[in-house]
Amino acid sequence: MSFYPELDHLSLEQLIKHFRLPPPEREDAVLYFQEIAHLIATNGEDGVKFLWQESDKANTEKLQAILFALTETPLQHPFVQPELCKLLVRYLHDERPLIIMEAIDSLSRLGVIGSVKSVLGLREHSSPYVRSSVLRFMRTLYPEKALPLLIESLKDPDYIVRESAADELGELDSVEAIPFLNSLIEKDPHPDVRQAAQTSIDLISSVAC
């Protein structure tokens, strides 16, 4: 179900108009523009071309939405496919942490395993959002190598990364992770991390039974 059902029946021209305007007050800008960008992409080649052309001049929230829409579902348009991975790899060097994060998540959605060296090079990035996206990338595309990295990241100084590591361990379905997750429940100072650890333990336990 759409977060913004009022957008569902708009024409491409109307969607483009909404995309170029500021978001409504009190709305999450990224979520709002993601919804519009996704709908624009579903309009075929004209919609995808618009998003592609907008990427060079979009602000952070709109660029996040564009990258999400271009990679949420595989796009078969030949004018985009050869260049999309190059664009995402270029954004790994962007000065905006949220764009780097979105680029990594987009590469993960596309299954671009060849970019692992560039992505792993961002493990020590100053932004917890970037470090978290590296964990998601490794768990999704390299699950057989992700466990040590995720366990190590449970000690990250930022709770955002610890929470992400706990979440990804649950998706990894590894019983080896349970003692480390139990330790988080007992000792981590942040409630979101403790909750993520408990949820992951429950998930792993349900699969193991």
Structural account:
- The chain is mainly alpha-helical.
- It has a domain at 147-209: Leucine-rich Repeat Variant (Alpha Horseshoe).
- It contains 12 helices and no strands.
- It has helices at residues 12-20, 29-41, 45-54, 60-72, 81-91, 97-110, 116-120, 128-141, 143-153, 159-172, 178-187, 191-208.
- The longest helix has 18 residues, at 191-208.
- The model has no long low-confidence stretch (mean pLDDT 92).
Helix content: 55-70%
Number of helices: 12
User: Could you tell me the strand content as a percent range?
Assistant: under 5%
Classified in CATH, the superfamily of the domain at 147-209 is Leucine-rich Repeat Variant
The largest β sheet comes out as:
none
The ordered string of helix (H) and strand (E) elements is HHHHHHHHHHHH
What's the shape?
globular
Mean of residue pLDDT? 92
CATH topology of the domain at 147-209: Leucine-rich Repeat Variant
* Unreliable sequence segments: none
Helix/sheet category: mainly alpha
CA-atom Rg in angstroms: 19 Å
Number of strands: 0
Q: Architecture of the domain at 147-209, according to CATH?
A: Alpha Horseshoe
End-to-end gap: 33 Å
Return the CATH class of the domain at 147-209: Mainly Alpha
Helix and strand layout, with pairings?
Layout: H1 12-20, H2 29-41, H3 45-54, H4 60-72, H5 81-91, H6 97-110, H7 116-120, H8 128-141, H9 143-153, H10 159-172, H11 178-187, H12 191-208
Helix pairs in contact: 1-2, 2-3, 2-4, 4-6, 5-6, 6-8, 8-9, 8-10, 9-10, 10-12, 11-12
